[in-house]
Write a structure and sequence with these properties.
By secondary structure, the chain is of the alpha/beta class. The protein has helices at residues 47-59, 76-88, 102-110, 123-136, 150-166, 182-194, 239-253, 259-272; strands at 15-17, 31-36, 68-72, 91-97, 114-118, 141-142, 173-177, 199-205, 233-237, 279-284. The protein folds into 2 domains: 6-39 and 159-291, Rossmann fold (3-Layer(aba) Sandwich), CATH 3.40.50; 46-148, 3-Layer(aba) Sandwich (Rossmann fold). The longest helix is centred in the middle third of the chain and has 17 residues, at 150-166. The protein is globular, with a radius of gyration of 18 Å. The relative contact order is 0.16. Keywords: Amino-acid biosynthesis, Cysteine biosynthesis, Pyridoxal phosphate, Transferase. The modification N6-(pyridoxal phosphate)lysine is found at residue 46.
């Protein structure tokens, strides 16, 4: 009998068909599929790059168990890194804005990570700057999800092939929210190698909207892994629309997810209004339980 270790459970998440949200569009012959990344062991799509970045850094001899790792995060990458660090024997220091949800911070601490907060005004840009300063001061090694090619590599090797196989190569459109951009970069690279006609749709916040997990970066902070040419179209989503779709996903589809997933699904439905006979795959980045205290699902009694 061979029982796998926890890292073997990362990936191979379900791809499910939306049943009710798109009923008014059925006459167009489209199907919308949701990739349930919340089924990963630490609860998000970020389990994939977290494991990839540590595993390949170890293989190259850049880090070894017992080392201190540092990373700036808004939540899901930090949770995933904290899990993988615990699994592989590293000290994990995570830097994040103070306005991150209580569930995210508590989950990171549960995995043994140490948390350093920057102010809400400093945001993720300030967190990234502090991580760099700490590394320069010799306080640890920054994995740097924003510039590390092992981030999109996880999706080129895992997420993309899983979707291609599950759809028998029939996928026509891929929709993903854009934050670090690792998911959309890795999947785009894989899909375009299989079929250059597959359309890659990126989701960004509309105007000044604030949506956890989706970012419109200032030019100076654009992730180094981001290649604009790998995205065929960028569609904006308002925070209110993303939140409404997040609630509808739970109440009408039974898919309990975070707000970035609601934003991506809202865009997938808008896209389906333009198309016929399309197979649209939308990434459901994480689970909704880490957003309960934000009020997006209503007040906690």
């Amino acid at each position: 009998m061979t029982i796998p270790t926890l890292d073997a459970t990362i990936g191979n998440t379900p791809l499910v068909r939306i049943q009710r949200l798109d009923r008014h569009l059925r006459h167009r012959g489209n199907q919308i599929l949701a990739k349930l990344e919340g089924n990963n062991p630490a609860g998000s799509v970020k389990d994939r790059p977290a494991h990839s970045m540590l595993r390949y850094a170890e293989a190259r001899g850049e880090i070894q168990p017992g080392d201190t790792l540092i990373e700036a995060t808004s939540g899901n990458t930090g949770i995933a890194l904290a899990m993988v660090a615990a699994m592989r024997g590293y000290r994990m220091v995570l830097i994040m804005p103070e306005n991150a949800s209580a569930e995210r911070t508590a989950t990171m601490r549960a995995f043994g990570a140490e948390i350093v907060h920057v102010t809400r005004a400093e945001g993720m840009e300030g967190a990234r700057d502090l991580a760099t300063r700490m590394e320069q001061a010799g306080e640890g090694k920054v994995l740097n999800q924003f510039a590390n090619p092992d981030n999109p590599r996880a999706h080129f090797e895992g997420t993309g092939p899983e979707i291609w196989q599950a759809t028998d190569g029939q996928i026509t459109h891929f929709v993903s929210s854009m934050g670090t951009t690792g998911t959309i970069m890795g999947c785009s690279r894989y899909f375009k190698q299989q079929n250059p006609d597959i359309q890659i749709i990126g989701v960004q916040p509309e105007g000044e909207s604030s949506i956890p997990g989706i970012r419109r970066w200032p030019q100076a902070y654009l992730p180094a892994i981001f290649e604009p040419g790998r995205v065929d179209r960028v569609m904006d989503v308002a925070a209110a629309d993303a939140e409404l779709m997040t609630r509808r996903l739970a109440a009408e589809e039974g898919i309990f997810a975070g707000v970035s997933s609601g934003g991506a699904m809202q865009v997938a439905l808008r896209l389906a209004e333009e198309l016929e006979n399309a197979t649209i795959v939308s990434i459901v980045c994480d689970r909704g339980d880490r957003y309960l205290s934000t009020g997006v699902f209503g007040a906690i009694e």
